[in-house]
């Protein structure tokens, strides 16, 4: 590129990065005397109006955001044929390079970076935008560990796959959510999924899904469960693994509902992990093992062969601090009282063992035998058996297993719970992805055991919220798209020529404005291409036929036929004599079959001259 200063303001110093669509230069804003990053698309994209529209959209989308974890956009402009975006210059390294060099990262570092990324994405979600291309290449990490999300070029562009119609790669299949891989609209949970993949990669040094080609990887995102990250890095805590796998759920409704919730969960995990570390450090050292009991010590009672009632080994009480015996004058008296109590206890044992109480409570009638307790005659010399009372068992509460209510309608869920003697509590909520009257979630996990009569709360969908559709006709298409998407409506753009509406402005919309429609419904906006006509498919035809077609095309005029001989026409022998080999606007650019050209264009045809 020849120019070193754009618009007499932005000085280019050196290239600091390059991607498939653009180069990034370190520059200086001469007016404000500050360092900036300047993004300039590759020259071969400048002939693609769709690409330039997306390029401008990136600047307009990101300029709406202001957050410490998002790269700021300062300016967007054009100097001659050079389009550019001026951004905040963040000194650091992209997260992908850090992962490639250092992964697996330390647990607390990975969690802290993921939380920052989530907070930046939440700012975008709050503004009605979905990033759609979250990946470590689009995160810059400063030397002090601050993460900055960049590259909003695909945000809310409604691309259903990782490729655009023109074949330019947008989005990376390694981080593609299942719904995007299936061609469905991206949601805030789609960004959460991609961030879950990034966190998985930071913790393990590996991607959850790989394959021979992008299609194979995309299909794995849709149908294959990821390898649990602890299988690759056993040092990952169980709670963090559960959070990562929740973010990677195939069903978007099972993930954290937006980046804000994901950030809160990561922050809570981080706090709990730190608290646990402090508690463990503060715990006293284990006391020395207790001495082996001597012959004079009382042995603990032996456990019956059936084991304890709970089936667990009894844990001995924690030994208290040793205390010196108190030397007081009452020691002898206490000793005598203790001896009298011991003698009484032994006497009671003797009475029970001889069966004296059995005789006292035997039935009346001169020493008859009690009908409820048979008497057994023992052989002489056999010891009298002792009577051991049977302990009264502790009653076990009656419980029911909570069923899985997901996918049921409200009536079926209510009936199932009542049949199990559980008390259903219903909560209603709007959700465009769940059918009306269908259970969306439940507070108590399926398979949990609850006492009869316990409450089970579940949420039922009211379907999508119905809202008024804004009127965006006769305004610029990019502003119209932003308004609709901020109101919760995905947008599909259809272009068509118009002699009354300027290029880039909305001609009309479907459904019509003012109607009450479900939130999330796709709105089609028809955008003007300006007063243009389609150039007919005449390149390759014979001259006479091409001229006849061109004469019938309203809005175009043939002004000249340029015969080209062997000296001017490359691959001369490949064409038939008098064949149309090229076309262009007089004094302007070359044309292709079936493209839009301004009405009134004067056409020059290139024709092979016969030898």
Automatic annotation (TrEMBL):
The keyword Membrane applies. The chain crosses the membrane at residues 330-352. It catalyses: L-threonyl-[protein] + ATP = O-phospho-L-threonyl-[protein] + ADP + H(+); L-seryl-[protein] + ATP = O-phospho-L-seryl-[protein] + ADP + H(+). It comes from the Bacteria. CDD domains: PASTA_pknB, STKc_PknB_like. Residues 380-395 have a biased composition (Pro residues). Keywords: ATP-binding, Kinase, Membrane, Nucleotide-binding, Serine/threonine-protein kinase, Transferase, Transmembrane, Transmembrane helix. Residues 287-314, 365-395 are annotated as: Disordered. One of its GO terms (molecular function) is protein serine/threonine kinase activity. This is non-specific serine/threonine protein kinase.
């Amino acid at each position: 590129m020849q120019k070193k200063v754009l618009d007499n303001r932005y000085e280019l110093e050196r290239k600091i990065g390059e991607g498939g669509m653009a180069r990034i230069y370190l520059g200086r804003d001469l007016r404000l005397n500050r360092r900036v990053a300047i993004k300039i698309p590759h020259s071969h994209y400048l002939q693609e109006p769709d690409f330039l529209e997306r390029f401008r959209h990136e600047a307009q989308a990101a300029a709406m955001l202001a957050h410490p974890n998002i790269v700021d956009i300062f300016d967007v402009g054009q100097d001659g044929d050079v389009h550019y975006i001026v951004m905040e210059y963040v000194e650091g390294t992209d997260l992908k390079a850090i992962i490639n060099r250092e992964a697996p990262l330390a647990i607390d570092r990975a969690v802290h970076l993921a939380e920052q990324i989530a907070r930046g994405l939440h700012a975008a979600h709050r503004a009605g935008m979905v990033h759609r291309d979250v990946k470590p290449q689009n995160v810059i990490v400063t030397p002090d560990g601050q993460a900055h999300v960049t590259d909003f070029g695909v945000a809310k562009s409604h691309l259903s796959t990782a490729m655009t119609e023109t074949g330019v790669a947008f989005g990376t299949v390694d981080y593609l959510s299942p719904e995007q891989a299936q061609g469905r609209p991206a949601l805030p949970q789609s960004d959460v999924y991609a961030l879950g993949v990034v966190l998985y990669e930071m913790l393990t040094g590996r991607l959850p899904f790989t394959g021979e080609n992008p299609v194979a990887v995309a299909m794995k995102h849709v149908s294959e469960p990821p390898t649990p990250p602890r299988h690759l890095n056993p040092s990952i805590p169980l709670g963090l693994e559960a959070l990562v796998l929740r973010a990677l759920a195939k069903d978007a409704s099972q993930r954290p509902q937006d980046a804000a919730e994901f950030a809160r969960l990561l922050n809570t995990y981080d706090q709990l992990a730190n608290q646990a570390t402090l508690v463990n450090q503060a715990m006293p050292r284990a006391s020395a093992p207790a001495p082996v009991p001597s012959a004079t010590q009382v042995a603990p009672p032996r456990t019956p062969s059936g084991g304890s009632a709970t089936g667990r080994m009894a844990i001995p009480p924690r030994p208290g601090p040793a205390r010196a015996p108190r030397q007081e004058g009452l020691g002898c008296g206490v000793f005598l009282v203790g001896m009298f109590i011991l003698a009484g206890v032994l006497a009671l044992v003797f009475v029970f063992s001889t069966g004296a109480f059995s005789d006292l409570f035997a039935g009346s009638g001169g020493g008859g035998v009690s009908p409820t307790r048979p008497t057994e005659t023992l052989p002489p010399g056999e010891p009298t058996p002792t009577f051991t009372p049977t302990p009264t068992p502790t009653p076990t509460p009656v419980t029911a297993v909570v069923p899985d209510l997901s996918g049921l309608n409200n009536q079926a869920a209510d009936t199932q719970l009542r049949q199990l003697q559980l008390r259903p509590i219903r909560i209603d909520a709007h959700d465009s992805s769940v059918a009306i009257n269908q259970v969306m979630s439940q507070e108590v996990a399926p398979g949990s055991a609850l006492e009869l009569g316990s409450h089970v709360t579940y949420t039922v969908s009211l379907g999508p919220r119905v809202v008024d559709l804004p009127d965006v006709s006769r305004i610029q298409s990019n502003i119209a798209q932003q308004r609709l998407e901020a109101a919760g409506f995905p947008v599909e753009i259809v272009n068509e020529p118009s002699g009354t509406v300027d290029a880039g402005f909305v001609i009309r919309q479907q459904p019509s404005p003012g109607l009450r429609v479900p939130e999330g419904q796709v709105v089609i906006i028809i955008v003007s291409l300006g007063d243009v006509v389609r150039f007919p498919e005449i390149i390759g035809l014979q001259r006479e036929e091409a001229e006849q077609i061109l004469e019938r095309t309203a809005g175009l005029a043939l002004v000249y036929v340029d015969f080209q001989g062997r000296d001017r026409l490359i691959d001369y022998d490949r064409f038939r004599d008098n064949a149309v080999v090229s076309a262009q606007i007089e004094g302007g650019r070359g044309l292709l079959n079936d493209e839009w050209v301004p009405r009134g264009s004067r056409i020059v045809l290139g024709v092979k001259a016969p030898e």
